[in-house]
């Protein structure tokens, strides 16, 4: 079973996260940050992964530590659930519309972390959540999962739509990349490893 459960406890955050790559897109998420919970729920739905998150942190300071640490733990869970990556498609990409927003996402489960963020956010907040935290979340996810991830905004005016498009596009690209390929029986690399 391609799944993992990770716990992270620091002086700033406490997180328990479970991920099942071969789920049905079910989400059971409670971080105490409404907008982030919404993004994580749609991430689960569009990735096809089952995701459970119980998280608390020093949100009286701001939402930064908790948002970034959830990205770290999700990345760690993804890396653990993928194991040696035998039989996966490895690559995924999508051009995803979200109303006026148009987002390009491309991912490689390469084992080599690289993150490209080409997104300008028009507003500093979505509700009470600092919109700049989206970049921090995806960077933490990328580094800890060992992904190459490119996110590029091709069009957009509404900050909520742009951030939502980024989460959905990343999820859809990952759905393709982590899927099992019936033609692939080994690790999809001429090196024989993706670590």
End-to-end separation in angstroms reads 20 Å
Structural class estimated from helices and strands: alpha+beta
Number of strands: 10
Quickly count the helices.
4
- Which second-level CATH architecture applies? 2-Layer Sandwich
Strand content: 25-35%
CATH class: Alpha Beta
Sheet bearing the most strands, described?
4 strands, mixed
- The count of domains is 1
Helix-strand sequence: EEEHEHEEEEEHEH
Shape: globular
Summarize the structure.
The protein is α+β, with helices and mostly antiparallel strands and 195 residues long. It is built from four helices and ten strands, in the order E-E-E-H-E-H-E-E-E-E-E-H-E-H. The strands form three sheets. A four-stranded mixed beta sheet has the order 1-2-4-3, with helices on one face.
Any overview of this molecule?
The chain has 195 residues and is α+β, with helices and mostly antiparallel strands. It has one domain: Ribosomal Protein S5, domain 2, CATH 3.30.230.40. Helices cover 34% and strands 31% of the residues. It has helices at 34-47, 64-82, 133-145, 159-178, and strands at 3-9, 13-20, 27-30, 50-57, 91-98, 101-108, 114-118, 125-126, 129-130, 148-155. The strands form three sheets. Strands 1-2-4-3 form a four-stranded mixed β-sheet, covered by helices on one side. It has a four-stranded mixed β-sheet with strand order 5-6-10-7, with helices on one face. The chain has a two-stranded antiparallel sheet with strand order 8-9. Helix 1 packs parallel to helix 4 (159-178) and helix 2 (64-82) packs parallel to helix 3 (133-145). The model has no long low-confidence stretch (mean pLDDT 97).
């Amino acid at each position: 079973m391609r799944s993992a459960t990770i716990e992270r406890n620091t002086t700033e955050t406490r997180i328990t996260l479970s991920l099942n790559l071969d789920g049905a897109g079910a989400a059971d998420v409670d971080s105490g940050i409404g907008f982030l919970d919404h993004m994580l729920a749609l991430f689960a739905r569009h990735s096809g992964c089952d995701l459970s998150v119980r998280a608390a942190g020093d949100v009286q300071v701001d939402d930064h530590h908790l948002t970034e640490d959830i990205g770290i733990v999700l990345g760690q869970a993804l890396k653990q659930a993928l194991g040696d990556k035998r039989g996966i498609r490895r690559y995924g990409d999508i051009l995803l519309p979200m109303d006026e927003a148009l987002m390009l996402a491309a991912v490689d489960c390469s084992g080599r972390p690289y993150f490209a963020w080409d997104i300008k956010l028009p507003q500093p907040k979505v509700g009470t959540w600092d919109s700049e935290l989206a970049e921090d979340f995806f960077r933490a996810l990328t580094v800890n999962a060992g992904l190459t991830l490119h996110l590029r905004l091709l069009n957009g005016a509404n900050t909520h739509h742009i951030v939502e498009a980024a989460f959905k596009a990343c999820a859809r690209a990952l759905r393709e990349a982590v899927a099992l390929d019936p033609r692939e029986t080994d690790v999809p690399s001429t090196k024989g490893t993706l670590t």
